[in-house]
Specification:
Jelly Rolls; nine-stranded antiparallel beta sheet; Rossmann fold; 16 helices; 653 residues; alpha+beta
């Protein structure tokens, strides 16, 4: 499992002044999607995980065959919020479960959605409405075990909604519970579903989002009213627990703080965060909630564990104890989050090929994954989106072994000839077919040589491009052609593309960060004093390799800025990396770095930077301006304190 480069979080900053939301308690936002250009992906107002959200005819349309969510970035996480929008379902784009509606989301493993649902084609495409919760990766958590909630309403759950009909969807979240409604154009309530939280664990905060999968869904006239937001500092996850698993003392590598591989004495070894060798011994699916049985309508293992243990917490304690006693030193694929970072390292799934195959396949899914069209011009964008969505939040996790980029792709389809034959069968304008014929041209040069290898009688490569009849390879050259296409697909596939995308994101977003600082100052940085807090790549180390601060500082110095930098551990490492550079000095404390500064730039989330004395900061700085690359502070609070605060995830006005 290749390790994906650590991705610096997207740096798209905005000034946040009092009045953007109205008050710390809340604010309102409306979007009729009329101000976007046709074909826009909605960024930066909306942040989707996929590539099938576009503005069409003044509506926000999703055609993703798989489920995807677009998050409204205008608001911080909310505790009291009402969101409503028009929704029209035009047609199905998938064959399995299909959903579309409103969402309150923390992340892809913790959310509520109010959705119009269509059952799989094999289940008679039954229509109904659901208000359902994913909690800690467990689907339908509101109906199960220790997360089961008390219903407050269950009207119209079997509502037989219709295609090409506009419905008004309404979702309200409060600390007491959640309620969803579906209304027709006349305002009649077609369905109303609700749950009370009581003292049960549940998703009780989150961001406003829209969700769709398996439909061509059109959203319009969104209204969101936030009556109580959650301070970013409260919502921000604490740092990952320190790594403490036992490695193999017989192999010594570099203690980088992360799992990695090293070549030692001519052999490649897996090295743990502490620099010790590591042999991974784990078992897949150590998961409290697996596996769902369509015929039974529940997960038998989960149901048995509920009876035996009574709660996931007790199950997790017992499972960890048994795994360790049996000699397992890591978790395999798909473990429960309740087991993670408690002594056993783990991998994560990214599912690049599987999910893109649902959008644009070379080989359609048979029983498992399909094979993605890696020749698609949209594939790189999909990789970038997935890296930002799945990999960026885990960039500092020392317990992360690496990523399952995919699992069991259909390189050689279980029915048919696999990606080679399936590429051949595509129409002339398909990117995979164009790539295949281009490969033939490169390998054979002339159509005559191709005909000799394949036993065909084609007049030109253009005729080959239009043909959808798969010839049978006659000789070694033809068989080598087949292997060459698979090799090309592999080289273009998710691993290098994701690595490439991650590196591009790292560099592009550091440059964007500098560009936004330049924009704020009207591109006049010469002679301006700027404070920099944080030089190390992450807290708790003096390592500046891959550190965003080095790029940021270098670019600002090139523009003539004067930098006063501070880091509790990494100033020596930075001196070694950058050398003695004119315009760069190092302060003895974080506050000393602020003296006379026209802005503060934060690059590393050291604990000491999280709760500074803001009044003291204002007294030391020439003007109270902060560019925060780590989202350390509550923007509403800083606006009230008189700071101009630029932070991750918003557009600069």
């Amino acid at each position: 499992m290749p390790r994906i480069p650590r991705v610096w979080l997207p740096v798209c900053l905005a000034i946040f002044a009092a009045g953007v939301l109205g008050a710390e308690e809340g604010g309102a936002y409306k979007d009729d999607f009329s101000t976007y250009e046709a074909g826009s992906d909605g960024e930066p107002t909306w942040n989707s995980g996929g590539i099938d959200w576009t503005v069409q005819d003044g509506r926000w349309v999703c055609t993703d065959p798989g489920k995807d969510t677009a998050v409204l970035t205008k608001f911080p996480p909310c505790r009291r919020v009402t969101v409503e929008a028009d929704l029209e379902l035009k047609e199905a784009t998938g064959r399995e479960w299909k959903v579309a509606g409103l969402c309150i989301q923390q992340d892809h493993g913790n959310f509520w959605h109010l959705a119009l649902v269509e059952a799989p084609d094999a289940n008679e495409k039954r229509h109904f409405v659901e208000l359902a919760e994913m909690y800690k990766g467990g689907w339908l958590a509101q109906t199960q075990g220790d997360t089961k909630l008390v219903p407050t309403s269950a009207e119209g759950t079997s509502f037989n909604w219709a295609y090409n009909t506009v419905y008004r969807m309404k979702l309200e979240l409060t600390p007491e519970g959640i309620t969803g409604q579906v209304l027709d154009r006349a305002g009649k309530v077609c369905a109303k579903i609700g749950f009370a939280f009581g003292d049960k664990p549940a998703v009780k905060t989150g961001k406003v989002a829209l969700t769709s999968g398996g439909f061509s869904s059109a959203f319009d006239n969104l209204n969101a009213e936030v009556r109580e937001s959650v301070a970013d500092a409260a919502e921000k996850k604490a740092g990952f627990p320190a790594y403490s698993a036992q490695g193999f003392d017989g192999v010594k590598g570099k203690a980088t703080g992360f799992f990695h591989v090293e070549q030692i004495d001519g052999k490649w070894w897996a090295i743990d965060p502490n620099g010790k060798g590591f042999f991974f011994v784990g078992t897949d699916h150590a998961n409290y909630r697996v596996h769902w049985c369509e015929k039974l309508g529940y997960a038998p293992y989960h149901k048995n564990c509920e009876k035996l243990y009574g709660s996931e917490e007790k199950w997790a304690d017992s499972t960890l104890a048994r795994l360790k006693a049996w000699g397992f030193n890591s978790l395999g694929a798909n473990p429960s989050p309740s087991l993670m970072r408690r002594g056993l390292p783990h991998p994560e799934f990214v599912s690049i090929g599987t999910d893109f195959a649902a959008i644009d396949p070379i080989t359609p899914k048979t029983t498992w994954t399909g094979f993605p069209n890696v020749f698609s011009p949209r594939f790189r964008k999909f990789c970038e989106k997935r890296a930002q969505q799945r990999c960026a939040p885990l960039k500092d996790d020392p317990w992360l072994i690496g990523y399952f980029i995919d699992n069991e792709l259909e390189w050689h389809a279980w029915t048919g000839g696999g990606p080679f034959d399936d590429s051949f069968k595509k129409p002339a304008d398909h990117s995979a077919k164009i790539a295949l014929v281009g490969l033939f041209k490169e390998r054979h040069g002339t159509i005559e040589k191709f005909n000799a290898a394949w036993g065909t009688r084609l007049a030109s490569f253009d005729e080959l491009l239009k043909s959808q009849d798969v010839p049978k390879p006659l000789g070694e050259a033809a068989r080598e052609d087949m292997q060459a296409l698979i090799h090309t697909a592999r080289s273009l596939n998710y691993t290098p593309r994701l690595l490439e995308a991650a590196e591009a994101i790292n560099q592009d977003q550091r440059e964007n960060f500098v560009g936004l600082v330049r924009r704020f100052f009207g591109d006049e940085l010469k002679g301006r004093t700027l404070a920099v807090w944080g030089l190390a790549f992450k807290p708790g180390t003096d390592d500046v390799r891959e550190a965003p601060a080095l790029t940021v500082i270098s670019r600002l110095l090139e523009r003539g800025a004067v930098i006063q930098a501070y880091d509790p551990q990494a100033m020596g490492s930075t001196r070694e990396a950058l050398g003695e550079v004119a315009g760069l000095s190092y302060a003895d404390s974080s506050y000393e770095a602020l003296e006379g500064a026209e802005a503060l730039i934060i690059n590393t989330e050291w604990t000491m930077f999280r709760e500074p004395d803001f009044e003291r900061m204002k007294s030391l700085m020439r003007q109270p301006v902060i560019f925060d690359g780590r989202n350390l502070y509550n923007p509403v609070k800083l606006a009230k304190l008189g700071f101009q605060y630029f932070y991750i995830g918003q557009k600069i006005d």
